[in-house]
Amino acid sequence: MYSLNLDTNAFLTNYWQKKPLLIKNAFPNFEEIISPDELAGLACEEEVSSRVVITKGNDWQIYQGPFEDYDKFGNSHWQLLVQALNHWHPDSAQFIDAFRFIPDWRFDDLMASFATPEGGVGAHIDNYDVFIIQGEGQRHWTVGEKGQYAAKNNDPTTPLIEGFEPIIDVVLEKGDMLYIPPGYPHQGQTLTTAMSYSIGFRAPSQQELFSALADGLIDSNTGLKRFTSTSEPAIANQVSVSHQQDMMALITELASSPDSYQAMLGSMLSQNRFELDLCEPDESYTADMLIEDIEQGAELNRIGGLKMLQLENDSVDRIFINGEAFEHSANIATDIALLANQFSFDSQQTQKLTQNEDTLTLILTLLNRGYFYLG
Ligand code: SIN
Ligand code: CO
Predict the structure, then answer these.
(1) What span, in angstroms and rounded, lies between the C-alpha atoms of 162 and 131?
(2) Does residue 2 lie in a domain region?
(3) Closest-lying ligand to the alpha carbon of 184?
């Protein structure tokens, strides 16, 4: 169990998306989520997104995984970062649960890092909200005020920055946590060999929303209404202000009609940036097979990272799973809400869920897609 020592309501009101916060001993008696050896092993896998960053003075190099061995990196000045640990390491689910006071749609991934002394990715700014939790070892963190900062060494190609004055300057120890909202410069430097974890949260940009809205309209062959006008400008080569505004009003009209945007939002927000570890069964489950397994005590588990979202006041009875809408009958709304809310179900709960034929059918689909597995 990971219990977060934080008044989450006060945090949401005063800090979330606003300002950074240091929470000493956020996880009392913090248990390491993964061992350094296991993490290094995961980064040898093709499907797992990993990188090693080497920092020596002004020299900065990134090696993308997978890795065969780490000997060439030596004993210091490097850090291994593994993205989406929650997809590949089911034991991390309980840790993520501690952050569900923030909605699932925002959750991006759990990144784990193994850092040697003097290792670090350098000073930078993220577009994402991040919680950094210290495992074994010690890392020195500085966080600066939100603002514009010069690129490191005036290099326009580098993601690194320089010249920020710390407003937080702290050595993180086991169980300590740092929250950093988007836009705040920060840097972690490793004092002793250390494990740390970053929980990242995302939010869509205008670009992403527009592009998803356009894709949705094309897929459903909707949004075909054209601009019309009742008057034309006197100057032939001019696009009048009223024509400009009326054209943009066509977009506003779509953007304010739930029928046009709900499917797009559900689909977009339920997709994952990182590859999922699908658990497709060797042989497709039938209703009989599933019922027999449940009678023998099987539990139903959702794979790590799979998003199951519902929209408040949705115009259709449906659940969005990994970018796809699954419509359902209104009479299984309670089952659907439970499936979306919980990550695992013991055999009793599963038995209850499978009593309704519609719910059973959906569970079978999810199992056969590899979105759920029996344990
Ligand atoms: C790190 O652990 O050094 C990288 C995490 C971050 O800066 O977001
Ligand atoms: Co960062």
Answers:
(1) 22
(2) no
(3) 2
pLDDT tier for residue 295 given thresholds of 50, 70 and 90: very high
211 and 318, same domain (yes or no): no
Query: What is the pTM (predicted TM-score) of this model?
Result: 0.95
Residue span of the structural domain in which 23 resides: 8-201
Q: Is 349 helix (H, G, I), strand (E, B) or coil?
A: helix
> Is any atom of ligand 1 closer than 6 Å to the C-beta of 306?
no
Ligand 1 centroid, distance to 308 Cα (angstroms): 28
The answer on 155 and 242 residing in a single domain is no
C-alpha pair distances (Å), 182 with each of 124, 186, 220, 226, 305: 11, 10, 34, 38, 22
For the chain, the domain total comes to: 3
**120 within ligand 1 shell (Cβ under 6 A):** yes
Residues 184, 296: one domain? no
- Compute the distance between CA of residue 246 and CA of residue 252 in angstroms, rounded to an integer: 10
In this structure, the answer to whether residues 367 and 352 fall within a common structural domain is yes
Q: Any idea which ligand is nearest the CA of 185?
A: 2
pLDDT at 111 over 80: yes
Atom of ligand 1 nearest to the CA of 120: 3
CA of 345 to the centre of ligand 1 (A): 34
pLDDT digit string (tens) for 234-250? Answer: 999 999 999 999 999 99
